[in-house]
Design brief:
Elements: H1 2-13, H2 23-26, H3 44-58, H4 60-67, H5 72-101
Helix pairs in contact: 3-4, 3-5
Length: 102
């Protein structure tokens, strides 16, 4: 909305878009222009860890085939992502519990 107002003022003054560089202003994250989506609530690490966990539980053979060619670095990265996802889930659960108490 602010961007449209700025552009309208420029047009009324006879300025063109090239007269003033306000590229930083266009992408600012102030409260008025911040837009949320349902995807904002989805954490990719948590989703990835959940999918791998489900794959391991439901199709262990396919999971083994998937990780069979992975070296120690990849396996360490997968383990680290799983641990990080568990921390995020715990943090979100604690925040939800605190919000429910208020």
């Amino acid at each position: 909305m602010k961007r449209l107002r700025r552009q309208a003022r420029k047009m009324l003054r006879g300025e063109t878009a090239d007269d003033e560089d306000d590229s930083e202003d266009e992408w600012s994250e102030d409260g008025e222009e911040a837009i949320g989506t349902p995807l904002d609530d989805i954490d990719p690490f948590v989703s990835f860890a959940e999918v791998l966990g489900q794959l391991q539980g439901v199709m262990p053979g396919r999971y083994q085939a998937l990780v069979a060619g992975a070296d120690a670095g990849v396996m360490a990265a997968l383990q680290g992502m799983s641990e990080y996802a568990a921390q995020i889930k715990q943090k979100k659960a604690a925040e939800a519990a605190a919000a429910a108490q208020q």
